[in-house]
Design a protein that fits this description.
Blueprint lengths: L1 H47 L5 H4 L2 H32 L5 H36 L5 H5 L4 H14 L2 H32 L2 H17 L20 H6 L3 H16 L1 H9 L4 H10 L5 E4 L7 E6 L3 H4 L6 E7 L12 H16 L1 E4 L2 E2 L5 H10 L23 H7 L3 E6 L8 H8 L3 E3 L16 H14 L4 E6 L24 H4 L5 H26 L7 E7 L14 H4 L5 E3 L9 E3 L3 E2 L3 H9 L4 E4 L13 E2 L4 E4 L2 E4 L2 E5 L5 E3 L3 H25 L9
Parallel strand pairs: 3-8, 3-9, 4-11, 5-12, 6-7, 6-8
Antiparallel strand pairs: 1-2, 2-13, 4-10, 9-10, 14-15, 15-16, 16-17, 17-18
Helix pairs in contact: 1-3, 1-4, 1-7, 3-4, 3-8, 4-7, 12-23, 14-20, 18-20
Length: 694
Amino acid sequence: MHNNVCGENMNKLSFLLDYWESSIQKLLVSFFTLIGLLLAGRIYFFLDFLPTDFWEKTSLLEVVLVFFSATRFDVSLASAVIFFPVLGILFLVPFSIRAGEIWKVIFNWYIQICLYITVLFIIVSHYYFYYFHDHFNSFFWEFWDNWQNSKIVIWSIFDELPMIKLSTSLLMFLVFLNLIPKIINPLISPLSILINRKVSMILIPLALLIGVRGTLDRLPLSMQRYREQVSAITHLNLVHGNPYYELYDSWGEARSVSDFSAVKKYLKQSTTEIPKWFATVAEMDDGREFRGVDEADFHIEYQVPALREKYLKQKPEHIVLIFMESQPAWLSNFKSGGFQQKIRKNLEQIKKRSLSFSRYFQVSWGSINNILGINLSIPTNNQYRLAFNPEIYKPFSTTFPRIMENQGYIPLFFYGGSLNEGRLYSLIPKLGYQKIFGESSIQNVTKTRFGVHDGDLFELVHQKLMKAKQPTFSFVMTLSNHAPYEVPENFVGQVKSSNAPSELKKRILEEDNFDKRMRALAYTDEALGGFFEKAKRSPYFKKTLFVLTADHSHQMALKWEPEERYQRERIPLFFYSPALLKTPNTVNDNFGSHLDIPPTILSMITEKPVRLHSWGRSLIVPPKSKLLLSQNINCFNDVCLANGQVYVLQKNQKLVLCKTTLCIENSEHLTKITAAFSNSGTNYLFNYRIVKSE
C-alpha cells in the first residue's frame, strides 16, 4: 500500500514537472505578448494624437523615459494576469492528473480571452479619448446607470467615429496579436530549455509577485497613480496611461462620486479648510461675500446689483434662455464669408444686435452638468458627477427658477429630446420649473432617434409665448446638433469641408464627420432664424429678452493642441432684444461662465438688489479682478492654469507658457481658488438653502 502511494505521488510529481516544463514557454510568450500589445497601443496613441509642435518642446530621450515609466505598469498588469495560471498549475495540477488535463484547457482559453480583451480595451480606450478628449473617467460608468437612454447615446457615438479608421485599427491589432508570439517564440525557446524545471518553479512565481508589486518602494505600483505628472508635456502625461488602470481608476471615481456618506464625513473633517476656500473666492470680486463659520453653515452670497434702468428700457415680460447644443465660439475665428454664412448666418446677425460676451466659457463638460451650473450657480465638474448625487433630486429652495419666480416669472423648461436623459424628469421639477415640455409634448412631427428637430421645438416655444397670459422664464434646450446629427429631409443646406478656410481645413480630422456636424450647425441656425422671424411678427417679441448660449463647445471634428484649450471651450453668450436693449451691438470682454448667467440676468431686470447664493457674478459690472472658473481652464488677470501648466493669455487669445515671477505669484493664488472650485460642487449641495430677495 505504501509503495502504491509513493508511486502515485511520484507519478503526480513527474506529471507536474513535465506539465510545468511544457508550460514555461507559453507563460513567457503570453507575458511578453501582453506587454507588446500594450506598448503597441501606447505608440499608436502617441502618434495618432501627436501635437504639431511636439518635438519643439521635448526630446527623444524624454519620450523614451516616459515610455519606460509607463511600461512598469504594463509589466505589473501582465504579471498579475500570468500569475493566475501559474497558481493553477502549482496547486491544481498536483491534486490529480485529471485536474491537470482540465486546467490545460482552462489555461489556453484564459490566455486567449485575456489577449483579445486587451486588444478590445486598447481600441475602446483610444476612441473614447478621440470622442471625449479624455481617458476612461466616471462618465464611462454613467452609461450603465440609465441603459435605456444610453443605448441611443452609444449608437450616436458610433455614428460619429471614423469607422474605416476604427476598423483598420482593430484589424491591425488583431494582426499584432498573432504576429507578436511568432516573433517572441524563437527568442524565448532557448531560454525556456535552459531554465531548470525545479528552480524555475520557484523563481517564476517569485518574479511575477515582484512584477505585480512593480516597485521596491514602500507602496506597490498599484497604489501609485498612473496618471502622475511624469512630464511637463501634456501629451506625454496622456501617453503614460494604461487602459486597464484607466478603467479601474474611473470605477473608483464613479464609486467615490456616489459615496455621499464619505463626502459628508469629509465635510466634518474640513471645518477649517472649507471657509478658507470660500473666503478666497469671495475676496476676488466686489459683491461676493463669504458667509458661515463651519461645514454646517458655509456659502457664498452675491449682492446682485440693480442695473435695469441702465441696460433695458423696461422690465421684460418674458425671458427666453436658449441653451444651444454644442455651439462653439471658435468658428468666428476662421473668417470666410461664404462658409460662415452657411453655418451661422442668423446667429451672426443676432450677435450684431446684441450685448455679447467675447470671453465666455462652459463651466464643465456635459449638458446636465452645465444645466446645473446655470440653475444652481455653483461649480459643477466631472470629478463630482452631480447627476449621481441624491441631493440633486431633493427640492432646492434657492435656485435660479425659484429666484425668477420671486421676480414674477413662471419658470418653463423645454427640451427636444426624452426627459429620461440624465433623469431630467426628476431633476427639472426639483430645480423649480413649474411646467416641463419634452419630445412627448410635440406631436405629428418627424422624429429622430433622439427626439424632435429644433424647428419643431422652437415652434412649440413660439406657441406657448403667444398664449402666455403671465410673464414667463423659459429654458429652451436644443437637440439637433447632437449626434447622430439628423436634420429634416427637406433641409437643403450643404456645408463641405472643401469650402472651409485654409486655417480651419488643416485641422479637420474626418471630412465626412466634419461635414455632418457643420450641416447640423447650419440647420440649427436656420431653425433659430425661422423662430425669430415668427417672433418678430408676434406681440411678445418687443417685450422679451432673449439670452442665447450653449451647453458646451464643439471639439471633436477638429484637431486642437493642448495649449489651445482656451479657444476650444469658448461658447457664445448673447443678450438679444432690439426693442428693450439700450446698448445693442456691444461686446463685453469680462471673463465669464455658466455660473454668471443667473446674476447677470437678474442685474438686468431687477429694480432693487437681490442676494443670491452664487459663485458667479454679474458680467455687466466691471470686476475688481478678472477671474474665470471652469473645469478645464481657470484664469486670474490673464494668467491661466490648464493641463497642469501655467500660461499667459495674450491679446490674440492664445496661451503661451510662462514661468516668470509674476506668473508664479498669480498661479499660486489661482491654485487656491481652483482647489476651492474643484471641491465645492458636491460640498455645496449639502447646505444649499434659500436667500430671499431683499
